[in-house]
Amino acid sequence: MRPIHQLPSAFRLAAKLIVAVSVLVAAAVVVPRLVAAGPSNTTEVAQSTAKYDKDLWDIARGGQLYDNWAVALDKELPKKNHPSYPTIGKKKGGITWRCKECHGWDYMGEDGSYGRGGHYTGVKGLRRMTGARIEDIIGIITDKTHQYTEDMIPPLAMKKIALFISKGQIGMDQYIDRSTKRARGDVKRGASFFQTVCAICHGFDGAEMVSKSQTEMAAFGDRGLLGTMAIEDPWESLHKIRNGQPGVGMVALRVLSVRDQVDVLSYIQTLTKRRLED
To answer: What's the confidence (pLDDT) of residue 220?
Structure first.
């Protein structure tokens, strides 16, 4: 059998994703068994696992659609500004149709990280919609203000966005210090997850599958190192850690607990410095 590095790029990516998913599945299956076996640190292990949720995949998919529904659905964003995009906003064209562009990566709109700067629109956040009925959320998405149609976002995809808004949000201020942008996680624990799951695609220093100049996958945009992006916009990083990246084969880590996800973010924020020191 040929080693992975000698395979064509498409097969290498598939092999990497299979390994990454296998690690996550093993974690999701083995850890609960350890808890059932009653080890001395049962409480600590139990707190590190995510609760079962039959909607887990749909919520993660909804998070990708919230990020960029057009890319997730293999469509194109409209060319003109969204009719309801505020005139004080500085963005133009298709980006104004992305949910995150008004409501933010922390889902807080004008009260969050988009409360100033180039993404400011003055639009309210979505946190108050947590727990809302799916039907009610869909009604808002398709109303005269938001104007999303079934031709843009099919009904099943629309339901996934609603599921994400209702059940998939977290209060990010609990996990990220807004003044310093530092994640409130355990770097050492995060290293264990990153180096055994994320590094398979992103590399041990977070320098792979990041920039368009390096790969067409462009998992985190044309902004250089993964660690740099996590420092500049930790809210976006945590959203993508939890839900994956639309349009590419990135694993969504919702199968892990929020604590684990924040630990991963904390470690990623150290990668640029570690790379410079090596």
So the answer is: 47
